[in-house]
Amino acid sequence: MTDTERTITIDLGKRSYDVRIGPGMIQRVAQAAQSLSARQAVVISETNVGPLYATKLLESLNAYGLDATAITFPAGEPNKTLPTAAKLLDVCLENTPPIDRDTLIIALGGGVAGDMAGFVAAVALRGLRWLQCPTSLLADVDASVGGKTGVDHPAGKNLIGAFHQPAGVLIDTETLHTLPLAELRNGLAECVKHAVIRDETLLDFLRQHSKTLLAVQSDDPAKLAFDGEVMVELIARNVAIKAAVVAADEREAGVRAHLNYGHTIGHAIETHIGYDNIRHGEAVSLGMVAVNHIAAARGMLDPAVADRVKETLAGLELPVAVGPNPLDTNEIWRIMQHDKKNRGGKVRMILPTALGSVDIHDDITSQEVQKAVAALVGEN
Hints:
The chain has 380 residues and is α/β, with parallel strands linked by helices.
C-alpha cells in the first residue's frame, strides 16, 4: 500500500468488508474477485462509464481466469427502475453460461450503477455476492458503502430495494479525473452532510481545500486536476464516518437515519423537478439549507451555524437557492408523505442542533416545510 492508499473496514461481523481507496484500484478488482473464489463475473455498468473502463476490467478478469461479461444500461436516474432491473436480470439468467451461485456481480459506475447492480445481486438466485467499483465522488463517499440497493418508483426515490452488503469496495480515485465538474460537486454535497452530522473539522477541511478539489486542468477544462492525496483523504474521512454509522445501525433502525439529513426535502425536490433537471447532490444541498431553516426557526440551531453551512455549500459551487421560479410547496409536502423513512404516517426528518450533532424528529408540520422551501426561492 502506498502513502496515498487507505483502507476502511465496515465492521458488520460475518458481513464485514473493506473499502480500499487509492489510484489504480480498478486494476485490482480481478484479484479481489479471485480471492472470493468466483468463477464467473458479470460487470454491470451504464452507458457513460462502461465505454471508459469496462473493456479493461473485462480483460483483467479474463486474465485471472474468470468467465467475465459486461452489461450496460442507459445512464441516468430516470433509468433506475424495475423495468431496467428486469432487463438486466434477463441478460444474467439467459447468459451463456447462465449465472450460478459462484457468479460475482461487479458494479462499475456511479450511484445509479451501484444501486442497480446491488439490487440485481440481491434478488438474482436469491442473493449473489457483489463488488462495488464506484467511479463518482457521490458513490465513493456515500452510495457505495452500507449495502443499500434499490430502484425508484414514480411515488419517490429508492422505494423498492433491499439491504445487501457487498463483499468489498474498491475506489479508484483516478476515475474521478474524467468526472464532469458538476458531478464532483454532486459528491461534495454528501461530504458536507457527513460533516454536519458527525465532524465539524471535516467542514473546515472542505472550506480549506475547496479550490483544490474543484481544480481543472488548464489545457483541458473537461479534466479535473485535484490533488490526489487531498482526494484520498477526503474520501477516507467520509467513508470512515459512514462506516461507523452503518456498523452501529445496519438497517436504519436508529442512528443510521442521521445519514438522511437534507434528503427528505432533497428527494422530494428531485421528484418534483424531475431527475433530468437536477442532480442528487444539488437537491440535497437545497434540502440541507431548508432543514437548517426549520431547525433555526425552532430555536434548535444557531442561525450563524446555518449560515456557515450555506456558505460552505456555496463555496463548493452547490446551489443554496432555486432561482426565480418557485417550487410548488404543496406538491413538495405531498411527495414527502411517501418517503420510506416515515413512521406511522408522520414525516420523519433529521434536524441539526450543532455542527456534528443531529436529532430525529417526527413532528414536522406542513407549514414548517412550506416556509422552509419557500425561503429557498431567490435566497442567496
